[in-house]
Design brief:
The chain is α+β, with helices and mostly antiparallel strands and about 240 residues long. It has a single domain, classed as Nuclear Transport Factor 2, Chain: A, CATH 3.10.450. Helix content is about 25%, strand content about 20%. The protein has six helices and eight strands. The chain has helices at about 30-40, 50-65, 90-95, 100-105, 120-130, 200-205; strands spanning about 85, 90, 140-145, 150-160, 175-185, 190-200, 215-220, 225. The strands form two sheets. It has a six-stranded mixed beta sheet. It has a two-stranded antiparallel ribbon with strand order 7-8. The longest helix is centred in the first third of the chain and has 18 residues, at about 50-65. InterPro entries: NTF2-like_dom_sf (IPR032710), Pathogen-related_defense (IPR053218).
């Protein structure tokens, strides 16, 4: 097992764990997704640059919302002021919903909602994406357009669809989306507001591309054969 000093070079808040109450009892291990990031990143930012600082800050922010259960243990946000402006969620609401549900919540008509956050729990949402993207969902900064206290940036999120997702078989292909964000920080560089803009269709187009996994049926000869179905999103 990695020592605390070796644990994660992108999420320094893990080195100051203290008496943190972890959602899964222990600090998370990001070795797999860090490898995915390093193999697939399109930008390598100089150490100490604004781009690297913002990139690591967002990685740390996501880690805290996914793996810590008490706001008092958070190092990356100002809990009294924090808002996530995908739909104006507070720190408490974001922590309750989980980062996936918070970021995927939308106002599309129900027939166009391929993923319904209101029907998912924190655990089921993370299980769904961990299943679909077993090596993790890597994240990188592509550009930073302004410095603190209001930081505007462009990002890329990617992984490989190597597990099932909501009844769809894996394709083994990369799924990714690009987006824009605005991060407002306080004097200690803790997040007060995060605005995220992206097209969920970029992500779900890749995840729904896999053919539906149908129940097996028994033929007259006793053989189990998969029922063939067509996915409307592959045409």
């Amino acid at each position: 097992m990695a020592t605390r000093e070796e644990r994660d070079k992108y999420r320094s808040v893990l080195e100051d764990a203290g008496q943190v109450q972890w959602r899964y009892d222990n600090p998370p291990d990001f070795n797999s997704v860090n490898q995915l990031f390093e193999e697939g990143q399109t930008k390598v930012w100089p150490e100490g640059s604004l781009e690297e600082t913002v990139q690591n800050a967002i990685k740390s922010w996501e880690m805290e919302f996914s793996h810590k259960i008490r706001l008092q243990d958070f190092k990356t946000i100002n809990p009294e002021k924090f808002k996530l402006f995908v739909n104006g969620l507070s720190a408490e609401e974001t922590l309750r919903l989980g980062s996936y549900n918070a970021l995927l919540k939308n106002s599309l008509p129900e027939e166009f909602q391929y993923y319904k956050p209101e029907e998912e729990s924190f655990e089921s949402s993370h299980d769904a994406f961990r299943s679909a993207l077993p090596r993790g969902f890597a994240w990188e900064i592509l550009s930073v357009y302004s410095g603190p206290p209001v930081i505007a940036f462009k990002f890329r999120h990617w992984g490989y669809f190597e597990g099932t997702f909501k009844g769809h078989a894996p394709t083994g292909e990369m799924v990714q989306f690009l987006g824009l964000g605005v991060l407002k920080v306080d004097e200690s560089l803790r997040a007060e507001e995060i605005e995220i803009y992206y097209d969920p269709g970029e992500l779900f187009g890749g995840l729904l591309k896999g053919p539906p996994i149908s129940e097996t049926k028994t033929t007259d000869s006793g053989d189990n054969t998969a029922e063939k179905q067509s996915c409307p999103f592959t045409h």
